[in-house]
Amino acid sequence: MEFPVNINSAEGINQKHLTEYLITNGLGGYASSTRLNLNTRKYHGLLVAAYNNERYVVLSGIDESVEIDGKIYELGTHHYKKDRNTNLEDIFHPQGFKFFVKSEIEPFPKFYYYIEDKGVAVEKEILMPHGENSVILHYKIKCDMPHNNIKFFLSPLLNMRNFHKNLHLSDLKERFMCEVSENQKHVFVEHKNLRLKFASELNFLKKEYILWNTFYREEKERGYDCFEDLYCPGYFFDTFDGKEKEITIVATTDEIKIEELNYETSRNNEILRIKNLTNLTSNKEILKQSLKMADKFIIQSSKGYGIIAGYHWFDEWGRDTMLSIPGLCLATGRYEIAGSIIKRWLNFMHKGLIPNFIPVTCPFECPHNSSDASLWLFNASYFYYIYTKDIKFIEEIHQKLCEIVEGYIKGNSACKMAHDCLIISNPQTTWMDTKWTKREGKAVEINALWYNALSILKFFSKLLNKRFDYVEILGCVKKNFEIFWNKKKQCLYDVISPSDVEDDSIRPNQIFAIGLPFNVIDDERKTKIFNVVFEELYTPCGLRTLSKKDENYKGVYEGNEENRDKAYHNGTVWPFLTGGFIDAYLKINNYSRESKQEAMKFLTPLLEYAEKFGTSPEIFDGDYPHTPRGCIAQAWSVAEILRVLDLLNDQC
User: Fold this and answer.
1) Residue 264 and residue 247: Cα distance in Å, rounded?
2) Does 5 fall in a domain?
């Protein structure tokens, strides 16, 4: 038996214990907390349900207690502040961390506790059945010493609110309504438009209470509401004779027979489902290990398949989706899903633009304010064809692709083609879209993507024996892209403003001019551009968004929303940029054996992080030690790792 990890006081809790886990249900819902089972975000919860076009934190957690020989040992941990206004003194109650031994995340999150002086061990495993807004918790209680009487208590803590908004019960008019079945095995809790059902072989005693002002340290750091009230309807309980005991509790918001959610069956089904996914990858062992990581982001609803841009707080974003399709869907063999996602987004197109994102609450009022999302759709479609050789699919979407080009030529809400055939983007319509990086004008990556998109349309038109009406524009883009060449710095300008002022900030956007399938720059300048990017932006975690030499560089992403936005694209490292960086490196070196080996070295730190934590984050700090920030799991971060990994697997 392993003993606790020496957390004898709150001061012993460190960042390792607060590393976050994430499991998903294929609907957009999830279960997530820290490895210590201490919620540090408003987005944490045992059951975050995708329900009625929104996501709700329904079940915040479950507090476990064990009574042994008349003494109660509480395994839960909550964080409070002695003074809510000053936020000075930390209080942890109960202090279940003192019994914490370890946690595991594969194949499912599992937590171990040990009450040393009584020789009692508790194991807890969390499982989410795929395609259901349900969570199953399975407990094993083991005793190293004889005890005449052991009691086990499970106290569910509920939020039942939109996952962006904390619950403050003193402000609510609507009450929580709790109903217990006659046999005391089922519990039903209703609040507003939500109904949560519990089932367990344990009995339930209704005893309502509220945990006031629980504290979320991550929300405090982010400058958001960091206090929340939690409602407990009562507790499940059981008594046994001190021998080994197994207990299962199920919670769901779905209209299903809850007793059918069997732990062993659901666990075996999920293991088999993941195993079956590996059959799609043509025995590429290195990719098989990453399939579960990719699967977290692919969701299915009545509207079709989609890709969640990031957990916890992102929904479906056009740019992120199109960048992610090659890695999440094509490299993993899920071709049909890739094609259906592309078609679905084309249905939302308006004047050549697919939406920047699809709001879950108003799916038919999508904002069309992204000047690159549609261009990345061309790229995703090209990769789809390269993987599948599905000409019929290309024929089905060809007209829509032409409409995108026409939308860019005539102009739309995000951008318009200028007289020199280059694209002028409106402020905050590129991927660097905060007010601190407006990038109004001719942005380097937008025009590299424009050239790439026109070239792809030409390629598709030839495949289909159709006319390509944009030969002159394509040549004009190639010719006039020369305005981006910065002779002094031997790289590319980032943006040319509407008044023809060049922005010579060293940013990673120029890497796409030499890394996309169809390069707008194909001469010896490729190496010069790459070298500047490597020397000024490269880190083992990805590329910085701005050179450290720049006076606007921000090396740490922290603080309130404004401070974070200032750093977001002004120094912060983005892992997804490693994909384009490696593409460029391989092209420059003609895919030589040595370049492939070196490319794996570029990729290895991100692979090691993903293997350790089960995913890849949205961003890292620009400064060493490159602390992970933002979303703990980001679709395009994972996708670009998988896409390049698949590329290198084929090349090596």
Assistant:
1) 12
2) no
Q: What is the pLDDT of residue 276?
A: 85
Torsion of CA 436, 438, 443, 447, to 10 degrees: 120
Tens-digit pLDDT profile for residues 85-95: 666 688 899 99
CB 164 within 8 A of CB 42: yes
Give this prediction's pTM: 0.92
Q: Residue 299 in 3-state DSSP?
A: strand
CA Rg value for the chain: 27
Q: Are residues 384 and 532 in the same domain?
A: yes
Residues 260 and 315 in one domain: no
Closest CA to 154 of 48, 234, 228, 259: 234
**DSSP single-letter state for residue 4:** P
Contact at 8 Å (CB) between 544 and 509?
no
Q: Which residues contact 625 (CB under 8 A, 6 or more apart)?
A: none
Cα–Cα separations (whole angstroms), residue 411 to 180, 352, 401, 447, 448 = 60, 9, 15, 14, 18
In degrees and rounded to multiples of 5, residue 481 shows phi and psi of -65, -15
Q: How far apart are CA 262 and CA 132, in angstroms?
A: 13
- CB 622: neighbour CB atoms within 10 A? 26
**Structural domains in the chain (count):** 2
Residue 3 has pLDDT above 60, yes or no: no
Peptide bond into 129 cis (omega under 30): no
What is the widest separation between alpha-carbon atoms in the chain?
Answer: 88
**Looking at the structure, do residues 259 and 299 belong to the same domain, yes or no?**
no
> Which residue in this structure is represented by tokens 């570029």?
602
Q: Are residues 122 and 148 in the same domain?
A: yes
Query: Looking at the domain assignment, is residue 341 inside a domain?
Result: yes
Tell me the per-residue pLDDT of 272-321, one tens digit each, with 9 for 90 and over. Answer: 998 888 776 654 555 666 778 899 999 998 789 999 999 999 999 999 99
Instruction: Give residue 364's pLDDT band: very low, low, confident or very high (50, 70, 90).
Output: low
Query: What's the pLDDT score for residue 5?
Result: 57
Q: Are residues 257 and 297 in the same domain?
A: no
Least confident span in 175-184, 459-468, 477-486: 175-184
CB 17, CB 7: distance < 8 Å: yes
Q: Is residue 584 part of a domain?
A: yes
Considering the domain architecture, whether residues 108 and 157 belong to the same structural domain is answered as yes
Residue 27 sits in the same domain as residue 117 = yes
In a domain, 4, yes or no: no
Range of the domain at 154: 10-272
Burial of 268 (0-12, 13-18, 19+ CB in 10 A): exposed
Q: Are residues 157 and 230 in the same domain?
A: yes
CA-based nearest residue to 583, from 633, 635, 546, 529: 529
